[in-house]
Amino acid sequence: MGLYMTLFLLSTLLVCASVSISGEGLSPKVGVCYGQLGNNLPNPSKSVQLIQGLRAKRVKIYDATPKILKALKGTELQVSIMVPDEIIPDIAGSQSAADQWVKKNAVPYYPDTKIRYLLVGNEMLSFGNTTTWSQVVPAMRKIRAACKKFGLQKIKVGTPLAMDVLESSFPPSNGTFRSDVSESVMKPMLRFLDRTKSFFFVDVYPYFAWSSQPSGINLDYALSDSKNLTYTDPVSGLTYTNLLDQMLDAIVFAMKKLGYPNIRLFVAETGWPSGGDVTQIGCNTYNAATYNRNAVKKFSANPPLGTPARPGVVIPAFLFALYNENQKPGPGTERHFGLLYPNGSDVYGIDLSGKTPDSAYKPLPEPTNNELYKGKVWCVVSELAKDKDVAAALSYACGQGNGTCDPIQPGGKCYKPNSLAAHAGYAFSSYWAQFKNVGGTCSFNGAAVPTAKDPSHGDCKYPSVFL
Ligand SMILES: *[C@@H]1O[C@H](CO)[C@@H](O)[C@H](O)[C@H]1NC(C)=O
Ligand SMILES: *[C@@H]1O[C@H](CO)[C@@H](O)[C@H](O)[C@H]1NC(C)=O
Ligand SMILES: *[C@@H]1O[C@H](CO)[C@@H](O)[C@H](O)[C@H]1NC(C)=O
Ligand SMILES: *[C@@H]1O[C@H](CO)[C@@H](O)[C@H](O)[C@H]1NC(C)=O
Ligand SMILES: *[C@@H]1O[C@H](CO)[C@@H](O)[C@H](O)[C@H]1NC(C)=O
């Protein structure tokens, strides 16, 4: 009787607090994203050991690599697999294409490999053409139908979106989906997620929000490490103590505006880079360790913390990423999100179970780039670039500006060494020096990176940019 009453009261309270938000068997657990864009990464079975060594409870991969799914067999790790972007049009248009994908990529491993989430594409609404956008939800429906057909009862179907799916995220109560997707894509997607009791999977990076306006946001607030800063949303009256909660609640409010107040959040990616290019700010080991340890504390807390708009609600989460991935395109930070180096040793101590107190970790190196770099910089060839792309960028740069490439012509002061890298480095630096003040960048589609190390040699002086 006593027990019955207690249970009754508890369940009444739960129902009042969070109608359909509490999920079956969902406890606060942190996982890791196992990206594979590196040419020097450990093999799948070694990687699974490393993931277990981090005490992760879940792992997310960006495809359905058979060797990884086999290596995960029999482990306790809950697994998220992904339908690659390129085949979404096919799947959206054909139930049998969806059936085949699920039959080939999930059925052979389920249930021994604990596949629990099947994500359809990656940040699909951030790029590409509107035709593809409108195919995401039809593909999700067909993938789910396929899972049902093959009896994969425990798999939830979703799609991870980036924060750019919002046109406004501040104050959090003003969270609004972009008008180009709101009616056409988000409404049917939310309807699907609600009906199937799935999650809104979101990639949320306070790092990007802070680094795009470092003077407007307090760094400790972005690191979820401020002891005394708060922000009160003037409309909702909710008080925030960190940027991550603000960003998550912006999604909650945007969903509510479209009539879906109860869809659960799932952090499909979050993290902070431990390094980057010289022109990038705040990417260092100290900040990465601080942010990620705080994220683990938040997402593993039991009872769960939730957010100001949804206090006490579980938010499952994946940290990005397992490894520093040396072939990931984009600025240097993209290749420095790893918890581990490719040799398997940790970039800083972290325990994804949340059971290691901060005091048990070794002291962190002091942050070195919490302010924007000031000084001379040059623009040189990226280690990752392919020769043909460097040659194309060289030719483009030489066609711009005044005398951009004169010194690398035969007889010029920078002709020797007559190598693609030396000539391209000169051309990129010379281009950047002329065009930076009108918005020119040191990127050349990823063929170039900025450096603070002067590449000049002998009589050959490379033009520089002053930051
Ligand atoms: C947009 O995507 C659709 C469907 O995937 C494709 O048929 C079309 O060619 C694409 N359009 C452009 C401009 O890339
Ligand atoms: C709220 O969002 C709208 C766009 O949806 C934006 O125009 C407006 O400036 C935002 N309000 C505030 C106070 O930022
Ligand atoms: C918050 O605390 C920091 C030190 O932890 C201190 O430097 C700062 O002045 C405090 N700010 C406020 C508004 O109290
Ligand atoms: C692993 O790689 C990192 C970064 O290159 C290096 O600092 C570290 O010493 C290496 N550890 C081992 C055990 O080789
Ligand atoms: C090239 O020279 C012309 C004429 O001196 C000048 O107007 C132009 O701004 C220069 N372009 C650049 C990129 O410096």
From TrEMBL:
Alphabetic keyword roster: Cell membrane, Disulfide bond, Glycoprotein, Glycosidase, GPI-anchor, Hydrolase, Lipoprotein, Membrane, Signal
Organism from which the protein derives: Oldenlandia corymbosa var. corymbosa
Gene Ontology cellular component list: plasma membrane; plasmodesma; side of membrane
GO BP annotations listed: carbohydrate metabolic process
Reactions accelerated catalytically: Hydrolysis of (1->3)-beta-D-glucosidic linkages in (1->3)-beta-D-glucans
Membrane protein topology class: Lipid-anchor; GPI-anchor
Domain X8 as annotated: residue spans: 377-462
A Pfam family this chain is assigned to: X8
Location of the protein in the cell: Cell membrane
GO molecular function, one term: glucan endo-1,3-beta-D-glucosidase activity
Record has Repressor as a keyword: no
Protein's recorded name: glucan endo-1,3-beta-D-glucosidase
Residues spanning the signal sequence: 1-17
E.C. designation(s): 3.2.1.39
Family from the record: Belongs to the glycosyl hydrolase 17 family.
